[in-house]
Amino acid sequence: MANRAVPQRPNGQTPGKICQFKLVLLGESSVGKSSLVLRFVKGQFHEYQESTIGAAFLTQTIHLNDVAVKFEIWDTAGQERYHSLAPMYYRGAQAAIVVYDITNQDTFERAKNWVKELQRQATPGIVIALAGNKLDLNNMRSVQTDESQTYAYENGLLFMETSAKTSANVTEIFKAIAEKLPKNETTNAAQQGRRLVESEAGNKSLSSCCK
Amino acid sequence: MDFAKLDEEELSYELKTRGIAPMNNVNEMRNVLRGLIKIEVEGKSLLATDSSVSIDVKSEVKTCVKKLQVINTMVKNIKGDRYSEHYRAVDAKLCHLMNRVDKLPAVEPQDRKDRSNLLKGILFLMRKMEEMAISTTVVETNTNTNDNTAGTGTVILYEKTTITDMNSTSENSGSVTSDEEFGTEYFVQQGVAIKSLSKLLKGSKRHKNDSETHYTGLLKIMKYKTAKFIEWKPTEMSIFPDADEWNIVDTDYKQNGKNKNDCNIDIKINLATMKSYKMKKHKKHQISILQTNGSLVTFLFESSPINDFVTALKTLLHTEKEIRHHRPTGVILVLSERQDSDPLCQSIKELKIFPDQPPTSTVWSFISGFQNNPVEKTYETFAKISDVLLTRTPDTRPDQEVAELLNRVEDDDEYTMVDHPPSVLPPRPVAKPRGNPLNQATFYQSMDNEGRILNPDNIKNIIFYGGCEHLIRYEVWKYLLGYYPWNSTREQRLYIDKLQAAEYERMKVQWMNMSPDQISRFNMYRDRKSLIDKDVYRTDRTLDFFAGDGNENLVKLHNVLMTYVMYNFDLGYVQGMSDLLSPILMIMKSDEVESFWCFVGFMNRVNTNFELKQTGMKKQLNDLHYLLTTVSPELENHLKKMDSSNMYFCFRWLLVLFKREFVHSDIMRLWEVLWTDIPCANFHLLICVAILDNEKDTIINENYGLTEILKHVNNLCERIDLDKALTTAYSIYEQLKEAQPSLQDSVNELLGFSLSHSDTILSSDSNSKEDDYEKALLMNYL
């Protein structure tokens, strides 16, 4: 399922490679998962973004040097009640963003549980990014940056504090993920060097590159 | 209230409470009261209730209880429709009692409790009467003399064996004794009918025109020294002619010599010879049990859900779902009886339940516990009872043999589970255009002068075909969502308003009075509250009704959801519920009480969607898949190829019944159609099929994969033509109805076709559903 390629429509203009990755957003209800996606994909922000029911699917392509990285983004419902559906959505994902709300400590604890679950059950070698969202509410912060930073480091996660409202670090976090993802089996040494954490495991299963 | 039906004591009371001294002449009293009530009904309450009348609460409560009992008996014996003298008399007495209880000066906690119990009793009877009125010809009589006052369908569960008996059970295992004295009752249920008894007995084919005979009786699961049996004994007999209009000819079989012989049959099924069973929960709940000798018995559960019985069976048997072609067939295979050494029994044993306790105390603790917490207590008691199971050697049967036996009865109409290849459907009829919405004039003209809606089915029909004018939704939705019974009078509705307002306040106060300190130690409450806070903030904020900061309607949305948490704490709050409430709050003009009870009615229909394990949703998605396979095999084929046959892309549609797919004005039109339950309770699934059918070409031609299908379906949001979806869904229904004989069992069942021949109990699909639904509602009041 993971690598079921969407039929590539021949596009003569595209030089270089197009890489396609499945990315899933996880995190407690109302931390801003859908808002991050909406900002990233459409550049919009809705103060009253409605809750996600089931799952939403969007795509966005970013360019890294000569590589076009296409994200197939699965945005999920956050409430614990729908937890049992999550495996269906992270199955086969090469990347995940686990989101929490910096003004709410509980959501950070929940995020840690998501990370644990992903490390245990998702595709081996999945690239996980931790996003402390709602940075615009910095004055109401209850999760300290140090704390999350340390946690992320210890668990080999990418980490950024973001704001879907002000768009701070939104594109950046997706970009960081794109950089960390292996682009094909014969990734060159230079690219390897850019990675923060080694990802020798599961390169084969992760790669879904097309020429 | 019809004063002609009240007796002298009652009339005196009515006058006294209105500050008028009773007269000696009954007729005079009636006349005075008739005059007074006219003024009251018009709302010109120049008559203040005379509060100076001193009432002795205790004796008044006693009087009321007695009256309630009298009315209860009367309700049971009502013969004839709502216009009959008998019905009207009961109606009048109930009205009187209602007023009377309402006026009980309840100060002491005990009095308040009495009062509230009385009110519940009255409401129970009101609903019961309504049920009779809806199915106009239904006459429900329970001939069992030991009738429980709680009404029919009460599960009586008790444990009869004495301690000494239990101690001796392990001794002999060889001889089978059928002596009832030594049996233990695991499960007892009254009012269970048996179907096709004639076929069972004589092996004769019944003719379509024959009137089907149902024998109603007492169903038990018994444990004897060496074996366990399902037993059934007839208590009464009913005949259901094969006509739309039907009567129950209810006779006590002892008095009816002709039927006596037919009826004098006990069914006994040894659990060890049970091969498999299959349930049907559509309309009437029923269970068909297949034995090793190939005989098949079907029990019909008149008024009680089948679940308790099945739970009891599962406590005693190891079972497994039959899977064919990777799909469950609905048949449950019996593998073996559970043994004492089973983990389940083992762990129960360790609890050492019945040590030295006399059995009677177990019974009573069960009964009192049952009133407080029926489900838990039932399970608990089942568990306790299984402790006294006997040790038997495992009796596992080879799968092949099971399959063979099942195949042998494949031809039986009640027991088909063949995975039919998709049949070719007849051409789909041309979609009929939608009709005109129900308007104010039609709606109010449909009421009699006391405000009863005379023909609810007619009203529902109009709504099904054309919806409802916005102006009268405020009234009509309360009926559709079960807040008002269709046959309630204006007076009764005023009373319901009053009662339910108090009930709402009571529950609202519970959460409002919680101190921050208390909340800090109440994790489950905090979680629910936090979810509600998060969702209220973002529910339909683009609508004027909820727009802007500090909008009062947000507070109301919050209050109703919080109160629902107190009403159903176990379910709590689940994302999606705020979506279901929002239109109701708008229609109910921000009235919290009315919104709350309408929301409760809506939730009663869909609460399985919000279950923790998603079983309700999975079932619906599965059902949808069945329908799609039948209606549009080529689309289903494509979905299968694309790993999408789990139908999860329809999750949002079903969870909140299309709330996110349509603009607000459309969602109101859609929901009221669905609430009519016409033509069947699963019409919403046909709407899904209709929409998907419309997108079929795009999905197949564009060769959409899993993600694209989800994206495409999500993006249909607010682009679906509602009228087209509704009309198409109905023509698909008609098309399937035409093809009914060739359809899969599961599909027939989903659409309410399967029981269309002999065992139709109520005159129409909608009635049957209404019946179940009303019963569910009724349970809320008790």
Automatic annotation (TrEMBL), chain A:
Domain of life: Eukaryota
Region (Disordered): 185-207
Gene Ontology MF: a single term: GTP binding
Residues in the signal sequence: none
Coiled coil: none
One family name in Pfam for this protein: Ras
Keywords: Hydrolase, Nucleotide-binding
UniProt-listed CDD domains: Rab5_related
PROSITE patterns assigned to the protein according to its UniProt record, in alphabetical order: RAB, RAS, RHO
SMART domains: RAB, RAN, RAS, RHO
Family designation: Belongs to the small GTPase superfamily. Rab family.
Name this polypeptide is given: Small GTP-binding protein domain,P-loop containing nucleoside triphosphate hydrolase,Small GTPase
Species this protein is from: Cinara cedri
Automatic annotation (TrEMBL), chain B:
Subcellular location: Cytoplasm
SUPFAM superfamilies membership: Ypt/Rab-GAP domain of gyp1p
Pfam families: RabGAP-TBC
Keywords: Acetylation, Cytoplasm, GTPase activation, Phosphoprotein
PANTHER family: LD27216P (PTHR22957:SF645), TBC1 DOMAIN FAMILY MEMBER GTPASE-ACTIVATING PROTEIN (PTHR22957)
Record carries keyword Ion transport: no
Subunit composition and interactions: Interacts with non-phosphorylated form of RAB8A; phosphorylation of RAB8A at 'Thr-72' disrupts this interaction. Interacts with ARMC12.
A Gene Ontology cellular-component term: cytoplasm
Protein name in the entry: TBC1 domain family member 15
Function: Acts as a GTPase activating protein for RAB7A. Does not act on RAB4, RAB5 or RAB6.
Highest taxon of source: Eukaryota
UniProt domain Rab-GAP TBC: residue ranges: 467-678
InterPro entries in the cross-refs: Rab-GAP-TBC_dom (IPR000195), Rab-GAP_TBC_sf (IPR035969)
